[in-house]
Write a structure and sequence with these properties.
Elements: H1 12-27, H2 32-39, H3 43-51, H4 58-68, H5 96-102, H6 105-115, H7 120-134
Helix pairs in contact: 1-3, 2-3
Length: 141
């Protein structure tokens, strides 16, 4: 007899929605514990939601939207299996690496600092600086 793996793999949409919960929570500077308190659940349950190992029910998702002040659609933007340009002629939103970047502490800090820069010329210089720092060094010989 062959042993069967009993662990069920998380659904890609559940993983995506969970990552969007984590993204929004970190954008708000909210801890898992604070979100859990607002929802009347433990931070461990928030961890399971964010990993996608537990599916978020409709009423719970609606409450998360209220607490985080976003529409339900926020959690499904760029979800796997979604049709491209589902919003008619709107351009597709950014690739997954944008969400991944904004989910890091550095990405979030950089984004928060950048949006506070009011002068367009300064913002352009910051972009130029970051681009130059990210370029591959030229081979010297």
């Amino acid at each position: 007899m062959v042993a069967v793996e009993s662990k069920k793999k998380a659904n890609p949409v559940d993983i995506h929605v969970g990552s969007r919960v984590r993204l929004r929570r970190t954008m708000l500077g909210m801890s898992q514990e604070k979100l859990g308190e607002a929802l009347g659940i433990t931070f461990q349950q928030i961890q399971k939601y964010e990993k996608g190992s537990n599916r978020i029910g409709a009423s719970r998702l609606q409450r998360i939207c209220e607490v985080m002040k976003v529409p339900v659609s926020f959690f499904f933007e760029d979800a796997p299996g979604g049709s491209p340009n589902a919003n008619g002629f709107d351009e597709a939103t950014g690739p997954d690496y944008v969400v991944d970047f904004l989910s890091t502490p550095e990405g979030l800090q950089l984004n928060r600092a950048f949006v506070r820069v009011r002068d367009a010329k300064v913002r352009k210089r910051i972009i130029d600086l970051v681009r130059s720092l990210g370029e591959e060094p030229e081979a010297s010989e």
